[in-house]
Specification:
mainly alpha, 3 domains, 3 strands, DNA polymerase, domain 1
Length: 453
């Protein structure tokens, strides 16, 4: 499989290996499963008429109530929650008018004052802060309220802001990797310049080694290794931008972490099937979770790759799934029959009717895609393992990816073939699975000198 960025690998190169090892049928044409979205609006969907909102239009936000109500309806709120949010916004509108506060001065501070006033009067309810945050975003997008000005508190903030743009725009890193690098960069700069005033010309190689030694006393070697990698990235960025006269990448010490020291975390095939069966597919959330678990277990996607799937990524006619992997890499995987049927069932009968193009949507309003980080998917896997009464030390989404690789290995696949299916960029990444190939390891074992017991 090609490892170049932005170049979709050919499904034909991966499908024979993938299907032969799993014994699962690929559907070459899934036109019969092409989901045609029906009318999935709930009977109590929040869809107010203009005259219904007339009594709430008093105050400064009155002219914007119609568009905000349309936003709530689009995000799938039910009637009770929709009207509750509209009454809260109407209350804010009257509150601003009584205090002669123009709408252009509405911001987080004013919102906090309003909510605090409601709390003192015993009128606060769960979800009020979320409603106000949604209203502010809506008004700012409509250019009615000025955008939030970024508060730059120190030189560290400026450097991290520029470094963040570099990672996202030039390096093409995903949000989770970017946040990890930013955390390490901020910790280093705060440790070296505790006052917040940064003098990059004063940085020396000794500052770097001192920080790594200081950090290694508090966290695991693996975490220190990730920090060291992030620091090399930071120093390379600062040198490239001319902020450092000497590239301090080489000053970051190597962190000793034994490769392949751990066993891959995986479930037995029977346990994987038990996890899949535990989803109540009579319910919409069960259809969604079953489709998610099946994609993870059959195709070996990472949690972040699953979150980024869009409706356009499913090629029903060709029976392929476009996967947006690490480093802006694009790959095409064959769409298995059971995976295609589960996705079609979810899209037709379980997915909320919304404007988002993400495949997997939150069941509760607002009906939007999962956050970009993988915690939501990991939570779904963890809950499924608990329902299936499987006691595993590893409860994240990656356990299903490892389970797929282990199953393929036991069915006769080579490490190169497994790396092709899992879309590993380096062959060394796949070597850990050799530790679960017991048949191959038996041939390497020396005879027991103590004789047969």
């Amino acid at each position: 499989m090609p490892s170049t960025r932005n170049d979709c690998s050919k499904t034909e190169e991966i499908a024979p290996v993938f299907l032969a090892q799993l014994g699962i049928i690929r559907v070459p044409f899934l036109s019969t499963l092409n989901p045609k979205k029906g009318n999935m609006l709930a009977t109590d969907r929040f869809c107010p008429r203009s005259e219904d909102l007339q009594q709430l239009r008093a105050g400064l936000i009155g002219p914007q109530l119609q568009s905000f109500a349309a936003l709530l309806s689009e995000q799938g709120y039910c009637s009770d929650y929709g009207w509750r949010k509209m009454r809260l916004v109407a209350g804010l509108s009257r509150w601003l008018q009584r205090r002669h506060i123009p709408l252009t001065e509405l911001n987080e501070t004013r919102i906090a004052m309003f909510l605090n006033n409601r709390r003192k009067r015993g009128q606060s309810q769960a979800g009020d802060r979320c409603t106000m945050a949604l209203l502010l975003r809506h008004l700012r997008r409509a250019n009615i309220v000025p955008p939030l000005s970024p508060v730059i508190r120190s030189d560290i903030d400026l450097i991290c802001q520029e470094y963040e743009s570099f990672l996202l725009e030039e390096r093409g890193l995903v949000r989770s990797s970017t946040d990890s690098n930013l955390t390490a960069a901020r910790r280093f700069l705060s440790h070296r310049f505790p006052s917040g005033k940064v003098y990059l010309t004063k940085l020396r190689a000794r500052d770097v080694t001192d920080f790594v030694l200081y950090d290694s006393a508090k966290v695991s070697p693996k975490t220190v290794q990730r920090t060291a990698t992030a620091l090399r990235s930071l120093f390379g960025f600062l040198f490239q931008k001319g902020r450092l006269s000497t590239n301090l990448r080489a000053a970051v010490p190597m962190v000793a972490v034994r490769r392949l020291a751990e066993l891959p975390r995986y479930l037995e095939p029977g346990q994987v099937e038990k996890v899949l069966r535990c989803c109540d597919r009579r319910r919409k959330v069960g259809k969604r979770d079953y489709a998610i678990l099946l994609v993870l277990a059959r195709l070996g996607l990472r949690a972040g790759e699953l979150v980024r799937l869009t409706l356009e990524d499913i090629d029903w006619r060709a029976g392929e799934l476009l996967v947006r992997g690490k480093g802006a890499r694009l790959d095409r995987l064959p769409l298995m029959q059971d995976v295609g049927q589960a996705l079609a069932d979810y899209l037709q009968n379980g997915r909320p009717d919304c404007s988002s193009r993400r495949v997997f949507i939150q069941c509760n309003a607002p009906h939007v895609g999962f956050p970009s980080h993988a915690s939501t998917v990991c939570s779904i896997v963890r809950q499924a393992l608990t329902r299936a009464d499987i006691k595993s030390p590893h409860m994240g989404a990656h356990v299903l990816r490892h389970s797929l690789a282990t199953r393929m290995l036991r069915n006769g696949a080579t490490l190169a073939q497994i790396g092709q299916v899992l879309r590993h960029q380096l062959p060394q990444t796949t070597q850990i699975y050799a530790k679960v190939d017991l048949n191959a390891l038996r041939a390497l074992a020396l005879p027991w000198q103590g004789g047969v017991l």
